[in-house]
Amino acid sequence: MTTHAPRPTWGPSTPEELLTVPQVMAHLQLGRSAVYDLLRTRQLASITLGRARRIPAHALADFIRTRLDQEAA
Q: Residues 54, 62, 16, 57: is their CA dihedral positive or negative?
């Protein structure tokens, strides 16, 4: 019987999901340039892996929550 090392997690029991720019484009229904503008202005957090940009799912949720709070104020 082999044992596997535990997978690293972010949070109590779920791994952190990283989204691609096209996935964020689909979620926000925005174009590529608009999403890259959000990343460039640091309104939307991301990490760079080599040449690839990845957006943590929690960063997208935080961005949406912040925008909703701004709209409500």
A: negative
Q: How far apart are CA 39 and CA 57, in angstroms?
A: 14
58-71 residue pLDDT tens: 999 999 999 999 99
Tokens representing residue 11 in the block: 């949070």
- Between vectors from CA 32 to CA 55 and to CA 23, what angle results, nearest 5°? 45
Task: Take residue 35 and report the two structure tokens written for it.
Answer: 């999403």
The DSSP bridge pattern shows strands 52-56 and 18-19 to be antiparallel
Instruction: Quote the CA–CA distance of 16 and 9 in Å, as a whole number.
Output: 7
